[in-house]
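EI: anyone free to look at a 295-residue chain?
SC: sure, send it
EI:
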Amino acid sequence: MCKSSFDLGSCKRKRILVESSPGVWRYIAKIIPYGLPDGGFALVPSYEHNEVGIFKIQLLDTFSHLIAPPDPIATDYQKASNRIKISFHHDGATQISGADTTGAIISGRHKESGEFKGLGILGRPFSAPTFTGAVLGMTAYGLSLYPRTNITKNTIRFSRDDIGRKWQLSRGAVILEIYLMHRKQEVEFYKVDNEIRCHAIRWNGATGLREKMDLRVFNLRSEEVYLGVRCYTRTTPKTDGNISGYMLSTQRDKNTNMGLLILCPPPRKALNSRSLDRGLLRPKVWMPLGRDIDK
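SC: here you go
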């Protein structure tokens, strides 16, 4: 059961949709809640391109550096040839694993040392979540090549009214930010078209200010936290010549100040880097893009 002083709805996986042009909805990513005792979640980008570049980078200042990263100061970077998901666990462990094939990407932690087998960081636990900013940011660009859908059930939807009607699909990107919200924190909940939202004061990585934000609520099975989801627009970032793809960036490690940055498609300099693949490869999918989906 999902527990909260306010009924936050069921703990079901949901797709995040953005209205890219009037009446046209694009499927950007999916949030999957984990069961107890963990109570965490995973985010799976919808973009169907196998190869990604995964960087472990030194965060210089704020979360906003990850939204539009310069050439990152990378201490480690690897690649993977399977679609990925990024998982967040109750103890703060944040890591990459395969989205389609179990065991396809090296992941998990060593039992004795607790070190990550692949690339991961140890962020703030759910018992003491960060209130300074988002735990995950996703920049999606070239949305005309993202899946198109008319699905309405189990979705979080951001219309053009939400993100700005003047935004142009051909010239811009959308940014999703996911915040950990502590259940004991007082926030203002309300409903719009049966969708639960909340107003909360959070640090805005785009402006560098603490602001009152309108967040979509995603419930978790954790008794400590739930998620707040935000979407806004920006100009298309530098993409190494790619016309469509995404960037994912995480919160920083609580001990080392390191963060994860995932780029899809990968930059050219990552093509010859070490691989996280275990050899269980999904057949390559090169841009079956912009297709319709109905399930």
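EI: DSSP finds two helices and 20 strands in the chain.
SC: 👍
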